[in-house]
């Protein structure tokens, strides 16, 4: 993680010196899929046998893995962020407690919104705005230190070189004005989501801590049940159930994903202790091969509906796979650019550090998107 670059000035100085479908005619009760790991799917009225529990864990460990990710932002190890989220959840408790009505129009989008925990959007908004604030803040710090080097160079510059340095300083000043506006925007966004005064936000964020570094080990070591119980999967399963008038039961779609570790499902590594700093690669398409749609083959008359369901799940798994690929790639970019900055000239070192910071920022944003996609708060 790029912390406050207090040594950058010295470092650079040394370097330079050296679908909508209505429920028409449907009489069955649509099951409500709860977020709690131990929750069960109520039996639809048109089905006679009871539905199995949503979690088929062989022991309590897998359920505990899932439970541990419910406060996933804690793995940033950032007390300020923890405080902001705590305030946001507390100040918005009334709105978060409101129950959503089952949609009149049945499609994946409306169902996903119905099943999604309201706290997911709130927490992700707070984390995104916080990371944005820290990103702009550290950019501004780098700019200040680089500008200080340019001021020093101006003292010795003459002729065309002096004009070049002055132009560079003018550009830096414009960027600084832009950064100030972005900081204000991020502060206002945090104020809206947490219901804290912008002045208070600015006060608690005045210390330059940099973009918080995330330990991705817990999610890699978790069960694929976190995917199986995501709102998007619940929505797809319910949509198939409704469109086939209950002929394709919920019990026939609950075990599509193998009950295995997250990293193993995506073919990343047999070592569950994969983290944000270790080198790891995704086996593209490996997860898709692990999906089991065989129970749906018994419903040939409903093949169009089951095919649509499969496409939806495949796309969702591919979306998560793409995020993991991005996280891995951006991590490598950050590492390369940080190392390059130590061997470059003043200008090139500044650009390399900005590039490394950008890679870290995009990596962290992708991690946030991953948890949002997994419907975890």
Q: What does this molecule look like?
A:
The protein has helices at 8-17, 60-68, 79-91, 93-97, 108-115, 118-156, 159-194, 198-204, 217-220, 225-228, 231-243, 262-265, 286-290, 303-341, 346-373. Residues 3-67 have low confidence and may be disordered. It is mainly alpha-helical and 377 residues long. The protein is elongated and about 80 Å long. The chain has one domain (8-21, 55-373): Outer membrane efflux proteins (OEP), CATH 1.20.1600. The chain contains 15 helices and no strands.
Assigned CATH architecture: Up-down Bundle
User: Helix/strand-derived class?
Assistant: mainly alpha
| Beta-strand share of residues | under 5%
Tally of distinct domains: 1
Spans where pLDDT lies below 50 across 5 or more residues: 3-67
Secondary structure: helix percent: 55-70%
Q: Largest sheet at a glance? A: none
What is the strand tally?
0
Instruction: Quote the average pLDDT.
Output: 79
N→C terminal distance: 23 Å
Shape: elongated
Rg calculated over all Cα atoms: 25 Å
Q: Can you write the helix and strand succession as a string?
A: HHHHHHHHHHHHHHH
SS summary, helix count: 15
CATH class: Mainly Alpha
Look up the CATH topology. Outer membrane efflux proteins (OEP)
């Amino acid at each position: 993680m790029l912390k406050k670059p207090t040594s950058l000035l010295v470092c650079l100085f040394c370097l330079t010196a050296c679908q909508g479908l209505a429920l028409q005619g449907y009489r069955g009760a649509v099951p409500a899929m709860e977020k709690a790991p131990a929750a069960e799917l109520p039996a639809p009225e048109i089905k006679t046998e009871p539905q199995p529990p949503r979690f088929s864990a062989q022991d309590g460990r897998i359920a505990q893995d899932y439970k541990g990710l419910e406060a996933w932002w804690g793995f940033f190890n950032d007390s300020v962020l923890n405080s902001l989220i705590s305030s946001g959840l507390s100040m918005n408790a009334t709105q978060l407690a409101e129950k959503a009505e089952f949609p009149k129009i049945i499609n994946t989008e409306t169902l996903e919104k119905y099943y999604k925990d309201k706290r997911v959007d709130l927490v992700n908004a707070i984390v995104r705005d916080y990371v944005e604030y820290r990103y702009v803040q550290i950019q501004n710090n780098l700019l200040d230190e680089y500008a200080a080097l340019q001021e020093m160079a101006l003292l010795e510059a003459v002729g065309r070189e002096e004009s070049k340095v002055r132009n560079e300083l003018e550009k830096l000043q414009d960027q600084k004005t832009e950064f100030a506006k972005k900081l204000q925007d991020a502060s206002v966004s945090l104020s809206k989501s947490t219901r804290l005064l912008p002045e208070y936000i600015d006060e608690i964020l005045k210390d330059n801590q940099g973009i918080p570094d995330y330990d991705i080990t817990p999610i890699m070591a978790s069960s694929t049940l976190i995917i199986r119980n995501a709102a998007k999967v619940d929505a797809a399963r319910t949509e198939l159930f409704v469109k086939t008038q209950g002929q394709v039961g919920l019990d026939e779609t609950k075990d599509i994903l193998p009950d295995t570790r997250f990293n193993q499902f995506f073919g990343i590594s047999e070592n569950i202790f994969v983290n944000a700093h270790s080198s790891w690669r995704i086996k593209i398409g490996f997860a898709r091969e692990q999906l089991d749609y065989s129970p749906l083959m018994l419903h040939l008359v409903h093949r169009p509906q089951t095919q649509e369901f499969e496409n939806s799940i495949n796309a969702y798994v591919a979306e998560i796979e793409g995020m993991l690929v991005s996280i891995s790639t951006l991590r490598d970019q950050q590492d390369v650019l940080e190392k390059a900055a130590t061997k470059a000239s003043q200008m090139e070192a500044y650009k390399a550090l900005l590039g490394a910071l950008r890679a870290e920022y995009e990596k962290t944003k992708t991690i946030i998107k991953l948890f949002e996609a997994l419907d975890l708060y």
